[in-house]
Write a structure and sequence with these properties.
heterodimer, A: alpha/beta, Rossmann fold, 4-stranded antiparallel sheet, 12 strands, 21% strand, globular, disordered N terminus, B: mainly alpha, MetI-like fold, 16 helices, disordered C terminus
Chain lengths: 362, 359
């Protein structure tokens, strides 16, 4: 009896956290460390790559969360943790009200139908030895949802839906262009009618004109099927175009997160500001008028991240406090409560970071 | 409507497929290339003839009227009790030391040789591929243990084991097949393991995992088709190795027991008669040589057909099929062709054991 009460209470607390009903994914303080093994006869752990170090985020139903950051900041690791492809060191992933943290493969099976991935490399993500029909039909085969003629019909419908010629189901991936291959990947991800699709840099390997087509396809599908996306990219303009909310990552931590307009127009974190200033602008006048914030040095190693704020060795605004105390991710004065920044000295409106950086270098 | 528009419409209608478009699979493309390789086709013909010869052994025995184990002490031996030569007394290829028909015995020997060659290669391939996939895919402790087992199997002195087994049990076909399989699978495992190690990092494997595919499904449906090419080449080259291996064991008297004929034990018997009966050595040796050569040349052809890059590179110098040349160029080109070089290994083993047999 008491057990029942407790379980009810705990499920009630889970439900109350997602009480508004439009939270699909809640990631709480997710940590993923990869052990670094030393040489010698007996391998022992000599360090930890702190790929993801305490990330919390939420993805709303039917919305897109954009995840940006430099190469190696842990974006893809985070995506794989959420998709359940790699075990999580600590923290929690709650999907649709269920805790799916480190489930066994068998227990994960029903969740797999609801979380799908689209990969960066359209050449590497499709098995070169299998025909397209078999690749797109694979989800049906694994989950036993459609067989024989029905599967073929479903596959052809999917191909048509993503803009491929359904007559091509007998072809091999090598016979398609990059954009068409990415469409095959989208069709495969769509097959089981998932709720969440994790797009791990889905357009960065594509031609710019093709990028737009694939992005439009993704947004059409979002509208038609009520999909949620976790959209990982390092093209800031692409992320801005597709995302409702944006999270900026730096070295395994969240630097800034909030609604897209807030993060782009009222940037508070110096790192986000530097990233934005580096994005190419299509308008030559705007490009000439803009002042780039040039960061010095390389991204520090995630094996031995800097103390305090992880960005402080490269930050144009860094002060002594930044090296000793880690800033909390919180809403800064004047920002809406959804706009969170992890910085002791957030960028104020009209502040010229580029000048500060240059002065610092001299 | 402008002319270009009309033309555009015309082509688009032409392009519209009336029936499902069938892509060409890797195997179809390989077969197309193999079909143009005269040496490989000739090898296939020779192998098919050899198989027909083996299958027709009872028919040959019936046609010449000499059962395989029938010793013709009167017409099959000359006045000194030695074998009679080809064409004498109706023995087309002569007789052996107790007057049995050599043609019939070589035909029955072909059955044993080809059976052992194909069965052991099939068993070794199945075992080798499975263990290689398991070691490569699961990694960690499983891989560490299996990799040491591969090394141990490759380092084992096979003649010693075969001698020991033959002295404990009586020599038999089962032991021959067991011993040859035991010494063949590890080479295939190594290749498959290495390939699996690199393939399992591919994004399509991750895609399969994210769809919920289990490890066995991934190993056999996603990884296996990608390693099958090199494995097929390797298996084609293992058949002649196994044929020679069987002949070696039978030659030493620890293989196929008498009175069943095998090319190896015929050659073993022939040792003391080569001075008076050349046919006794030449015909079984020729059968062995032709068979192994055909399989080796076919293996080379399959390897070239599998890797279109080698073919294109050698399009102008097709006559230069020498292995040395291929290796040299393989090194110059880089890791892509390392595969071809790697797969060439059994040839070295092959010539090694062949020389061993001569000595």
């Amino acid at each position: 009896m008491s057990d029942q009460l407790i379980s009810q209470a705990s499920s009630a607390s889970d439900a109350s956290a997602d009480a508004d009903g439009d939270t699909l994914v809640r990631v709480e303080n997710l940590v993923k460390h990869f052990p670094v093994r030393g040489g010698g006869l007996i391998s022992r752990t000599v360090g930890q790559v702190q790929a993801v170090d305490g990330i919390s985020l939420t993805i709303k139903r039917g919305q897109t969360l954009g995840l940006v950051g430099e190469t190696g900041c842990g974006k893809s690791t985070l995506a794989r943790c959420i998709a359940g492809l790699i075990p999580i060191t600590s923290g929690k992933v709650i999907f649709d009200g269920r805790d799916i943290t480190n489930l066994s493969r068998r227990a994960m099976q029903p969740v797999r139908r609801e979380i799908q991935m689209i990969f960066q490399d359209p050449y590497g993500a499709l098995n070169p030895r299998r025909r397209v029909g078999s690749i797109i039909g694979e989800p049906f085969a694994i989950h036993g949802t459609a067989t024989g003629a029905e599967r073929k019909r479903e596959v052809q419908e999917l191909m048509e839906r993503v803009g491929l010629n359904p007559e091509h189901f007998n072809r091999f991936p090598a016979e398609f262009s990059g954009g068409q291959r990415q469409r095959i990947g989208v069709a495969r991800a769509l097959a089981l009618r998932p709720k969440l699709i994790i797009c791990d840099e889905p357009v960065s390997a594509l031609d710019v004109s093709i990028q737009a087509q694939v992005l439009n396809l993704l947004s059409d599908l979002q509208r038609d099927f009520g999909l949620s996306y976790l959209f990982i990219a390092h093209d800031l303009e692409v992320v801005r175009h597709v995302s409702d909310a944006v999270t900026v990552m730096y070295l395994g931590k969240v630097a800034e997160s909030g609604p897209g307009d807030q993060v782009y127009e009222h940037t508070r974190h110096p790192y986000s500001a530097a990233l934005l200033s580096a994005a190419p602008a299509a308008d030559p006048d705007a490009a000439a008028a803009r002042q780039r914030i040039i960061l010095t040095g390389d991204v520090p190693s995630p094996i031995n991240p800097p103390s305090g704020c992880r960005f402080h060795p490269r930050c144009p605004k860094a002060q002594e406090l930044c090296g000793t105390t880690e800033p909390a991710l919180e809403s800064k004065a004047g920002d809406p409560s959804t706009h969170l920044t992890a910085c002791h000295f957030p960028v104020e409106a009209g502040e010229n970071l580029a000048a500060a950086g240059r002065k610092d270098q001299q | 409507m402008s002319i270009t528009e009309v033309q555009f419409q015309a082509t688009s209608i032409e392009d519209a497929p009336a029936v499902a478009i069938q892509g060409r699979s890797q195997w179809q493309l390989t077969w197309r290339r193999l079909r143009n390789d005269k040496v490989a086709i000739a090898s296939i013909v020779v192998i098919l003839l050899m198989i027909a010869f083996a299958l027709a052994a009872p028919l040959i025995a019936a046609a010449v009227g000499h059962p395989v184990d029938q010793a013709y002490t009167l017409k099959g031996e000359n006045s000194f009790g030695n074998p009679v030569g080809p064409g004498t007394n109706g023995f087309l290829l002569g007789t052996d030391y107790i007057g049995r028909d050599l043609l019939v015995r070589i035909a029955y020997g072909a059955r044993i040789s080809l059976f052992v060659g194909i069965v052991t290669t099939a068993l070794a391939t199945i075992a080798g591929v499975t263990l290689g996939l398991v070691a490569g895919y699961f990694g960690g402790v499983v891989d560490a243990v299996l990799a040491r087992v591969f090394d141990a199997a490759l380092a084992f002195p096979f003649i010693v084991l075969a001698l020991a087994l033959a002295s404990v049990f009586h020599p038999s076909l089962a032991i021959v097949i067991g011993v040859i399989t035991f010494f063949s699978w590890a080479g295939i495992s190594r290749i498959v393991r290495g390939q699996t190690l690199s393939l399992k990092e591919k994004e399509y494997i991750e895609a399969a995992r994210s769809l919920g595919a289990g490890p066995w499904r991934i190993m056999f449906l996603d990884i296996l088709p990608n390693v099958l090419g090199p494995v097929l080449v390797l298996a084609t080259l293992y058949i002649p190795t196994a044929v020679v291996f069987e002949a070696t064991l039978s030659f030493l008297g620890i293989g196929i027991p008498e009175p069943a004929p095998s090319w190896g034990n015929i050659l073993g018997e022939a040792q003391s008669f080569y001075a008076v009966a050349w046919w006794y050595v030449v015909f079984p040796a020729a059968a062995l040589l032709i068979t192994t050569l055909a399989f080796n040349l076919l293996g080379d052809g399959v390897r070239d057909a599998m890797d279109p890059r080698t073919e294109r590179l050698f399009a102008g110098v097709k006559s230069e099929r020498s292995k040395k040349n291929k290796r040299k160029i393989g090194k110059g080109i880089g890791p892509d062709l390392a595969q071809a070089v790697l797969v060439g290994e059994p040839n070295v083993d092959q010539s090694g054991s062949a020389t061993g047999e001569e000595g």
